[in-house]
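Re: the multi-chain job from yesterday

Posting the exact lines I submitted so nobody has to dig through the queue logs.
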Amino acid sequence: MKNRKYLLPVAATGALALSLTACGPSGGGGGQATGVDCAAYESYGKLDGKTVSVYASIVDTEATSLETTFAPFEECTGATIKYEGSKEFETQIGVRAKAGNAPDIAIFPQPGLLTDQATAGNLKPAPKAVSDLVDKNWSADWKKYGTVDGTFYAAPMLANVKGYIWYAPKTFKDNGWEVPKTWDEMMTLTKKIADDGAMKPWCAGFEAGEATGWPGTDWVEDVVLRAQGPEVYDQWVSHQIPFNDPKIVDAMNKTGEILLNPKYVNGGFGDVRSILTTGYAQAGQPVLDGQCAMHHQASFQAANWPEGTVVAPEGDVWAFMAPPIDASKGKAINGGGEMVGAYKDTPEVQAVLAYMASADFANTRVKLGGAVSANKGLDPANAQSELDKQSIALLQDPDTVFRFDGSDLMPGAVGSNSFWKGIVAWVNGTPAKQVADSVENSWPKS
Amino acid sequence: MTVMPAPDEAANASSTKTRGGLPPNGSPEDSEPIMRRVKSKLTSRWATAAAVIIATVWTIPTFGLLVSSFRPAAKQVGPRSDGWWNFFGDWQFTFKNYVDVTAAAGSQSANLSQYFANSIAIVIPVTVFVLVLASMAAYIFAWGNFKGREAAFIFVFALQIIPLQMALIPLLTLFTQVLQIPPGSYAQLWIAHTMFGLPLGIFLLHNFISEIPGEVIEAAKVDGAGHTTIFWRIILPLSVPALASLAIFQFLWVWNDLLVALVFSGGTADVAPITQRLAEISGTRGARDYLNPAAAFVSIIVPLAVFFGLQRYFVRGLLSGGLKG
Amino acid sequence: MEFIGGKFLQVVIALAAFAAIIGLIMLLVDRAPKSAKDKVTIVGFLAPAAILMLVGLVYPALQTSLLAFTDAKGQPNGVDNFVWMFTQPEALATLRNTVIWTVLVPLLATGFGLAYAVFIDKARGERVLKALVFMPMAISFVGAGIIWKLVYDYRGPGIEQTGVINYLRVALGMDPKQFLLDAPENTIFLIIVMVWIQTGFAMVILSAAIKGVPVELVEAARLDGANPWQQFRNVTVPGIRGALVVVLTTITIATLKVFDIVRTMTAGNYDTSVVANEMYTQAFRAGEPGRGAALALILFLLVLPIVVYNARVLRQQREIR
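And the result, structure tokens for all chains:
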């Protein structure tokens, strides 16, 4: 191909620019920029001239961080990692795999999608080195999410913690409110705030384009996990109990006590239904302006506050973990994360997989901010914010029972379609039972 | 970096002459009785008023977006935002969104010009391919003589309905497995877009080419011209307005495409068009969606410039039924 | 700017290769023996387009037809997908909406486009006026979604409105309205977006056609004392009938296929879904390509009347000639 000749220098300058940014100040002047100690990378071997393509749903600044994390590996091994991010990853990975044009490595944001690809026979089982690393660095729960029908395919990468309830410490302090320790306390506080009338207790926003409704699935999952415990949660997610089981409908109604109560929502935006037209990235902002007291969203909400907002226990905004509903059901948290699967098993692909499962990778990435990992080899000192520190502590705590975001585990027809739609219909006025029935009907018959 | 048409060009619009030896459009106003002229001025004044109202209604939504694109993030989204019209009261003006879109945010954006170049490198060949292949086919469907011509044309017409989405997987398989076209090259995009553009292109051009008077073609045949001569010397020059119209539509469809690009481009700055980059500008979890208005405007600059540039060529345009009288 | 050079070299090579192929075809056609000349011409002129369409459209269409009878795992499942299609609760609303879209969008867009084309014909600043209404055509569907979300934006009563229509409603003393949430009128609000886009297409083509109507005919009608409306009805409209059919047809097909507007603005919630959006959702998000394919076949059936109508128009044209 003629064009190759012209593309190569471009790629080379790109890679150089990248490694320069990665190494920061040490990279000044000419010549080779080596701010990295390559000793730790020797075990991956020499991979000069090898290229590994990585495809994921991570884009823009988050993608830059990921590429920066790859940089020392590329520099020391000589391999090139060709990263491509797309917001349409979930639809496109299926198209590419089916057409025989899969990337070498895909980072799956949903275990359900990983399961689909594995059962379709597209994925290669993880190499032993990766499996061993995961045994060493992650809890058994996490390994399970990368395992399909007894075969381990994918190591976890980053994680996020769901179920945080965001609030403005100053607002709470000024009004003499305490951070609730149980669900009942939270409901009492909610009622008190509503009765005071100065602001709505809650604000929420479920609008997310074609994914509208997903923040609501997180709400319901949190309540199922806290009210019914991890066992029922697992049965629900794996369809051992139907979606319209009374326990689930109860949990929806319990969520509805907050979300569907016009006195409790939706500060700064309007009535209950305005939840559906409020973008989830902005939905929390009334917390800062004293228009609402609390906002439920995962740890990544930290990036959604306007520039300059201080996220800290004494800052502009801080979060507490949604309190337990039934203390006897244990202290489980809900969260999400990415799983790294491979479509090829060449040595260079396996080397990249091993790097991504290593503690080095987690530490390098977390140091760049805006991310945490459940990797036990992660040094909490690398966390870039108070919240990251707290999330890491939760994830690494051996007593924490971790459950993956349920909608991400359900089959696509439910988890990425009818569950979202059901939440939307529910907020728009359809009764919980009817919604649960229709989601149950959409569950693929197998 | 883009050339906007000079404003006075628009004012000169009425002086633009049609091409292809067709009668000019100006009405012989001088010979009109005065009364009639006054009357027609009056009606045209009402018509102009109505046109201005429609134009205003059509433009306000886009104008709102344009104004928004210059407002700071907090004014655009979230609870502190207010309507864009408040801009004219508080004048909080910023170029920051445009800077972020074109330069500052994210790994891939430092070279937005690369994506721009990609878009152009994708759209120009596709437009040429579709125009030439569609006009060749349309010429045969209009003037060729073979059995089943009508049925074949109707079949091509019906192909328009085939949803792009359904063709993506079979095509990608073909490109990568059978034809071995390297992934992440322009070639896949060029071919795919051309395939998808042909049915409508043939349909539109056929309607125009079939209305070229038969006498013109007969006369050429008598002079001994073959099909190739007729096609290049008569059909194409007479079809310039139609070709220009199709060119602009084809340009727009390909320029604004995201779906085909997602499947065939490989997503890197080597090949991916600007739509693909702009779709990601708001970040993995939409934290920067206040950049969307600025991004939208960055992407429509080129199509608008092309529209202004080509406008003079389709003053007469597609499908005039005029020649038959 | 080395990278730009590399990119444009590829473009130049592609264009040169294309020119070489076309040149070769022309050469072959020219050199063909007299007896076979017509045949060679037909084959030579049609072959490139025909091959591309067979590979890129016909073959996938056939595959889709087969896919419509398989389940998520690719196993044949008879007509289950079609049964599902007509028994899911939202099926009727989806079909109803699709019909409303395909009736309203072509009529409204063509109507506005025609009226506008007539109004601005020979008006001062015609080019600028044209460009203003054409502008939505230059905006991608996703961009249009962003724009119209801004227009329909809603805030509760008593909170400052951010959407322009709700702002006007409140200024006139009405309550703000959730435009996208209440069926069935929300479908109309989505249709407005598509009309807003397609009017530019209709206007450009119809304006060009109007300019093709011979001036002498209009003049003659005017001298006969016809008022502007009569001139328009009796001279202009018959003169542009062909263009009207083309515009209506093209917009109808575009409307049947459009899914981006629904997808970005309501995601098919609140009873606003249309067949094309359902097809995309099932095939790409829900992991049910069989159901998506079945919906694609329904789209094909829906377009059949238009195909038949166009076939008849074509035959009439041929008879006239």
